Amino acid sequence: MGAMGNALATALVEAGHATTVWNRSAGKADNLVAQGAQAVATAGDAVRAGRLVIACLLDHASVHEVLDPLADELAGRTLINVTTTSPEQSREIAAWAADAGVAYLDGGIMAVPAMIGQPGSSILYSGSAAVFDQYKPLLDLWGTSTYFGKDAGLASLYDLALLAGMYVMFAGFMHGVAMVAPTGITAREFAAMAAPWQTAMTGAFHGFAAVIDGGDYTVEGQQSLEFSNLSDLLAASSDQGISTEVVAMVQRLIQRQIDAGHGVEGFARIIESIKQPG
């Protein structure tokens, strides 16, 4: 019953589903109990309470720590695991579940707790199609449900790929905040300028995607790699006395393609630097 587990369980309780909850430390489910959920003392009690078991734990290791001793209890039940794991870890848990006779669906949550059940919340799933189809009305209580196939690692792969873009974007925003801070501009003031700018720039994704899928980085209308050189941005950052790590990472991707003779080609070509690590 961390922040996310609490949000998921709350959506189920509010929709009228009989919901049993368990948490390692007592007290975190008090708000749910007040709404009608039943709190139990052990994970085993929670598993025995119903045919559907939902795991929202810290990491891959904690899933095994909690559920391994309960393999016999889980047999014949359904497990939906929305714990953040790597694709290979998701596949490993799916194989473990299959050996234990457990129907398994893996989920990747593309939302923060406050978004659960609200517009914009999205959860990605992979694994058992039968489980997804059977429980989709319940899953849709949390957000838009999208199924990616029987490979249990696909939801995690898409989840982490989308998070990659988010974290790099956030890092870029914070770099910008650090650049202007010495002039007295607050982070709040900078955010007011950055948010609409960043939002407008996401419109370029589709253009980049078309170029990448086409495999031709010489298509007219692209900003060239040479024009995209970030030397001035790096110099300005150094002049402000801040780290250049965030921007230097992008510059390295650009420079590798320029050094390979592709300077006049489009910026989208940096994906080749990413796909083939130096």
Question: What can you see in these coordinates?
Answer:
- The chain has 278 residues and is α/β, with parallel strands linked by helices.
- Helices cover 51% and strands 11% of the residues.
- It is built from 13 helices and 7 strands.
- The strands form 2 sheets. It has a 5-stranded mixed β-sheet with strand order 3-4-5-6-7, sandwiched between helices. Strands 1-2 form a two-stranded parallel sheet.
- Strand 6 (122-127), helix 7 (129-139) and strand 7 (144-147) form a beta-alpha-beta unit.
- Helix 8 packs across helix 9.
- The longest helix is centred in the middle third of the chain and has 27 residues, at 154-180.
- It is elongated.
Short description:
The chain has helices spanning 3-14, 30-35, 43-48, 60-67, 71-74, 87-100, 129-139, 154-180, 187-201, 205-214, 231-239, 245-259, 270-275; strands at 20-21, 38-39, 52-55, 78-81, 103-110, 122-127, 144-147. With 278 residues, the protein is α/β, with parallel strands linked by helices.
Provide the fold topology:
Blueprint: H1 3-14, E1 20-21, H2 30-35, E2 38-39, H3 43-48, E3 52-55, H4 60-67, H5 71-74, E4 78-81, H6 87-100, E5 103-110, E6 122-127, H7 129-139, E7 144-147, H8 154-180, H9 187-201, H10 205-214, H11 231-239, H12 245-259, H13 270-275
Parallel strand pairs: 1-2, 3-4, 4-5, 6-7
Antiparallel strand pairs: 5-6
Helix pairs in contact: 8-9
